[in-house]
Design brief:
heterodimer; A: alpha/beta; 5-stranded mixed beta sheet; 21 strands; B: alpha+beta; 7-stranded antiparallel beta sheet; 23% strand
């Protein structure tokens, strides 16, 4: 292997970095890049697709040498939020066709007269009961009626459904029935996912529900992920065989490739039953964050930039001889806080996380969180989640609502960021200020209507909200900042929290330098 | 860090509310609260309606009896010391903001719900072991002997020790965060920020109440066993009064006055459709009057398990109906609010319990959800089928929605649930059902939902026998219990089906 690369694929941007790794110390080193290199390391996906972007960034020499590519992608998450996946068929033990739906969390969590069940990537027309049953000890009570499957396969053909998720009761103990059904469908050209491959030790309380959910998620996003993987592989063309490609997994990892599901199915039950990464299954509580290179079993990453932040974390540890108390990643697509230790189990929209992994907390504020006035409080309020890049910030001439990125832009905090700055329309600055002026006029308890003052006050609010995350996680000592937007926040954060030491990771400088790494070792 | 564009005092309150909410979210799906040492609730994140009022009192009682200091943790489950029912265990801890001192400046508490045991006789001691406030950890040292003793009891729920230990870890995380809170002026609880916070929360709720129509209404409802609930709801300028005078006493369904207060607060939050901060500021705007001997004001040693679930749901449903009488947008069909509970006791002492809910009542433009109890969203049910079957010798044959159980209407009610259990070992089963005689009514022309029922099919016998609303009996291997929960009432006249020519 001649080089080790990290690729982070977000909703709108792809970012590439190179990591050199000493096999003895497991120390990583991010390659510094020459300024004004003609080769881009971040690109805007709607303009340049993954295949072309990778070819351009790596160049023919690097591609032909081969190496290790670790991919972090947010496609899994986006396939859910933007409904990009394809509805799979769900084959479940007869009598429990509605069980998963009945146990789907109700939203909102606060008392409401209009509760709804959370969206699930299933359709009641695509759920089929299978006549079979295992007992709690794994012994068989009713065998699978294979003959019934013939009829079912024909029906799925008519429905044009080619992906099947299989969830049977007690398959965690005895997966024979699930494998029988999987083999049956795989032989007929279907993609099939067994829930046995998605079991976790921490599933005890939610048992089959968590396992089935993960299986359905994997099946739902399978088509989109396969397509993305194909685009990546196409970049390497005839040299693909020289590359080892792995996917980093995170705590919200809803994904698993079919290949990995199959490989896990052939594993011994005790080896890595989760289908998660090696790093997620072998770590003890309190250990430091794993290096992406420790990722062995393919899985999929759903937190953009985790890959990059992890690499820097490891690098920082190696160079400073001590672990920072936290790493704040301020990327173009995602803000999150990386904390020492492992992720504790927490319930998300669809139950507990799929993979126990490094501890990271997605911040309430995201770069594309928008700002507006609400009824309850007489002041501008920043929304609690990012809206993504569709329609995107005002400075891209797309949206009508200012976002955090727009505030930074209005204040001149965002200078030259590779691939990003090319999309910024300078003429939108007056529009942003005009919107803030209008907003200021509508604040009932206003004391100023100067739009620059409003922008400055909003920046203060943003920093305070980030600081709340520090308080909640009891962050102390040194905080490492990574991501393209880190320089825009460093001074304000340092002023807000003089007791913390904010260290800008070299990667940020690297990102700023608009160059390509000397990718070969 | 002051703002020049707008009045920053509101920012302070909003920021503190967000901080407290996020902090208590660390307890996941468990209710949690922060209480001032003098006993005033500062912020409660209640996931069960009763918790908003009971949890702060349980925490305060622990502090009153044990003088909790930094690093101390107490445990309690006594319904008459701020608890709800014996299966819900409360942990309370002290936190000091000073690095040197250990006197508690704030109290943290979390409530851990476990599957409740049923008592058909109304005696508290049949529902489990009563734990008065007692120390669980002193100066950071967890007393594992107490924990092991509790977990080793045959009636203890599975995972008791692990659940408590995990909660203790979360308490430590929150304690650490609170100690750091002084590093942000908007999170700093040392500077008496909370006084303004409590006042602002009260002001905010007052403004919301002022938008409700003024007036009063009187409603009655009956428990399955016939006892009456009487409610007079009055909305005055800045207060909501729930007067339960005239409510009869019951030997089976009883809940404490605090739990009744929690039910009323929860209903008001639902009506206002806003997550109202539960604290001593907002509590001042509610007046709840209960008769000294009614089932809404239980006295020790009355059992509270059914009261905290079925009784509480009935209070919420009745109060909501009363709001609906005064305000059109709050009209809705009655849901299948009574839960159906099955408890199976085995010879080795293990007890399997399961609760299944009926369908939700429909509202204008909103059909009811199947198997969803609007008022008991924090109620614990059997959970995973696999976990139930692994822990107990029982086979759950199916869980499906109940066809034709929903009340028809322009918006249909939610369907009930059918759940089938097969005994795989001889055992003793107990069950209680609500709404077996009173159909969940529809609203504005909507039809009623189906009533709940439970059927028994003996092994080797094809006939199904309908059982009484509550009772107990021995089960043999192969006997099947089939539970049908109530459907929700519909809303509005159902549209006529097109004539078939």
């Amino acid at each position: 292997m001649s080089c080790r690369l990290g690729l982070s694929v977000g909703e709108s941007f792809a970012e590439l970095c190179s990591i050199s790794l000493s096999s003895q110390s497991q120390r990583s080193e991010i390659q510094r890049t020459p300024i004004h290199s003609p080769q881009p390391t971040r690109w805007f996906l709607p303009r340049r697709n993954l295949t072309d972007g990778l070819r351009e960034a790596l160049g023919p020499d690097v591609i032909s040498k081969g190496g290790h590519l670790t991919i972090a992608t947010s496609l899994a998450a986006h396939s859910f939020t933007k409904r990009l996946g394809s509805t799979p068929a769900f084959l479940v033990t007869a009598g429990f066709e509605q069980w998963l739906d009945l146990q789907t969390p109700i939203l909102p969590r606060y008392p409401s007269l209009h509760p709804t069940r959370a969206w699930t990537p299933l359709s009641s027309d695509h759920i089929f009961g299978i006549s079979e049953r295992n007992r709690a000890d794994g012994s068989q009570e009713t065998p699978v009626a294979i003959d019934d499957l013939q009829f079912l396969a024909a029906k799925l053909e008519l429905l044009k459904t080619r992906v099947v998720a299989i969830g049977l009761l007690h398959s965690d103990v005895n997966p024979t029935h699930e494998r029988q059904i999987r083999d049956f469908f795989v032989e007929r050209g279907f993609a099939a996912f067994c829930s046995h491959d998605f079991r976790l030790a921490s599933d005890q309380s939610r048992g089959e529900l968590a396992r089935w959910q993960r299986t359905i998620h994997a099946a739902y996003a399978h088509t989109a992920l396969s397509e993305q993987r194909l685009h990546i592989e196409q970049a390497f063309g005839e040299h693909l065989a020289n590359w080892e490609i792995t996917f980093a997994a995170s705590n919200s990892g809803r994904m698993q490739t079919q290949e990995s599901a199959e490989s896990n199915a052939n594993d011994d039950a005790g080896s890595n039953p989760t289908g998660a990464t090696g790093s997620s299954s072998n770590g003890a509580a309190g250990s430091s964050a794993p290096h992406p290179s420790q990722t062995k079993t393919p899985g999929f990453e759903t937190a953009v930039g985790l890959q990059e932040a992890l690499a820097h974390w490891t690098q920082f540890e190696a160079t400073s001889k001590k672990s920072p108390s936290a790493c704040l990643h301020l990327g173009l697509e995602r803000f999150f806080l990386l904390l020492p230790g492992r992720e504790e189990s927490r319930t998300q929209e669809w139950g507990p996380p799929a993979f126990e992994s490094v501890k990271h907390r997605i911040l309430e504020l995201q770069p594309t969180s928008d700002i507006g006035l609400v009824d309850n409080w007489p002041m501008p309020v920043i929304s609690e989640s990012g809206r993504g890049y569709e329609p995107g910030p005002m400075m891209f001439s797309k949206s009508l609502n200012p976002t955090i990125l727009d505030i930074l832009f209005a204040l001149g905090r965002i200078s030259t960021i590779e691939a990003f700055s090319a999309l910024v329309q300078e003429r939108t600055r007056p529009r942003i200020l005009e919107t803030l002026f209008t907003m200021a006029k509508n604040i009932p308890d206003k004391t100023s209507i100067d739009p620059m003052q409003i922008a400055s006050d909003l920046e203060t609010s943003i920093i305070e909200r980030i600081n709340q995350d520090f308080v909640i996680d009891s962050v102390a000592g040194t905080v490492m900042l990574t991501g393209a937007l880190a320089p825009a926040f460093q001074a304000s954060l340092a002023a807000r929290r003089p007791d913390l030491k904010f260290v800008l990771s070299e990667q940020t400088e690297w990102a700023e330098s608009m160059g390509c790494a000397n990718l070969a070792d | 860090m002051t703002r020049k564009s707008w009045n920053s005092t509101f920012y302070q309150t909003e920021a503190l509310e967000r901080f407290l909410n996020r902090l208590l979210c660390r307890f996941g799906d468990d209710s949690a609260a922060l209480v001032l040492p003098e006993g005033k609730p500062l912020h409660v994140r209640a996931l069960h309606p009763a918790d908003s009022a009971t949890l702060p009192v349980a925490i305060a009682q622990c502090h009153q009896y044990l003088q909790l200091r930094d690093g101390d943790i107490a445990i309690v489950n006594d319904p008459y010391s701020g608890g709800t029912r014996l299966s819900d265990i409360t942990l309370a801890a002290g936190v000091s903001f000073e690095t040197a001192g250990r006197d508690a400046d704030l109290l943290i508490g979390v409530r851990l719900p476990f599957p409740p045991r049923m008592s058909l006789t109304g005696k508290l001691d049949e529902e489990g072991l009563r734990i008065p406030p007692m120390p669980l950890a002193v100066d950071g040292k967890l007393n594992k002997d107490i924990l092991m003793h509790m977990a080793g009891a045959p009636q203890a729920p599975p995972q008791l020790q692990q659940t408590i230990e995990a909660a203790v870890q979360r308490i430590e995380l929150v304690r650490a965060a609170l100690k750091c809170s002084g590093r942000d002026p908007y999170c700093d609880l040392r500077k008496a920020n909370y006084k303004r916070y409590l006042q602002d929360c009260k002001t905010s709720l007052k403004a919301m109440i002022s938008r409700l129509p003024l007036g009063e209404t009187l409603l009655t409802a009956n428990l399955e066993s016939g006892e009456m609930l009487k409610l007079r709801l009055e909305i005055v300028d800045d207060k909501v009064i729930f007067d339960f005078s005239g409510t009869e006493s019951s030997s089976r369904v009883q809940l404490t006055e605090l739990a009744t207060f929690g039910a009323c607060f929860h209903t008001l939050s639902t009506v206002l459709a806003k997550p109202i901060p539960a604290n001593s500021g907002t509590f001042q705007l509610l007046e709840v009057h209960t008769p000294t001997s009614g089932w809404v004001n239980a006295k020790a040693p009355a059992a509270t398990s059914r009261g905290v679930s079925d009784g509480l749901a009935m209070i919420c449903a009745t109060a909501f109906k009363a709001f609906g009488r005064m305000s059109q947008p709050h009209r809705a069909g009655v849901g299948g609010h009574g839960s159906c509970r099955v408890q199976v006791q085995y010879k080795d002492g293990r007890v399997f319990t399961d609760a299944t809910h009926g369908g939700m009542g429909a509202q204008k433009e909103q059909p009811g959800l199947a198997g969803w109890n609007l008022w008991l969203n924090g109620e614990i049910d059997g959970g995973s089928i696999e976990a139930s079957e692994k822990n107990y010798p029982i086979l759950i044959r199916s869980v499906t929605t109940r066809p034709n159980s929903a009340g028809k209407g322009k918006s249909a009610g939610g369907e009930g649930i059918i759940k089938t259990y097969t005994a795989t070992e001889p055992a003793h089963a107990t069950w209680t059902l609500e709404q077996t005689t009173h159909k969940p009514e529809g609203m504005d022309g909507g039809k009623s939902g189906a009533t709940a029922e439970i059927l028994l099919q003996r092994s080797g016998n094809s006939e199904k026998e309908k059982l009484a609303a509550c009772g107990s009996m021995d089960l043999n291997v192969g006997d099947v219990l089939r539970l049908h929960t109530a459907g929700g009432g519909g809303f509005g006249e159902p549209e006529a089906s097109p004539a078939i020519s």
